[in-house]
Amino acid sequence: PTAAVMGDPEFLFGTQLLEGVKGDIAEVEKQIFTVESASYPEDEKASPESIHLRMHQVPHMFLVAFDGPAVVGYICSTRSVEGTLTEESISHDAPSGKNVCIHSVCVAEQRRRQGLALKMLAKYKEHLASLGKDVCERALLMCKQNLVELYTKGGFTMVGPSPVVHGADQWFEMKMDF
After folding, report:
1. Is 96 exposed, middle or buried (0-12, 13-18, 19+ CB in 10 A)?
2. Cα(14)–Cα(61) distance, rounded to whole angstroms?
3. Rounded to whole angstroms, how far apart are CA atoms 105 and 123?
4. pTM of the model
């Protein structure tokens, strides 16, 4: 990977991070949880244990953006055999699943509204497409109404209101087919 230049993030997948390219993985996971905690209300954020499991179970689906040693954003996912998001499909990783369930697209507060989320989504989309349809047929995510435009710009299309209840707000399911 090339080094970050003038504030451009360095993108690394969990497979690289588990090899120690950014030092202690526990410290990286701690920074990821800090970004997660600043991005979601208490009743919606992932636990440190969930982040750890996703990093270790599906490292090739865990993208982290760095500015030097600092985590400034990330996308993490699991896989599902279901073609839509359900409580079941987002509760665990199904290694044979060809549907990627994106759990988080988070950007550190100081880097928001600078295009980083779209850069991460572009990198992630490129990565998923490179895996081929035998591995990834579609990416799915849930978002709140205020983020629909962002994900539409990132290449997702609206499916509709999600039946999944996660916190107090209504979520909308979006998808990207490969």
Report:
1. exposed
2. 7
3. 12
4. 0.91
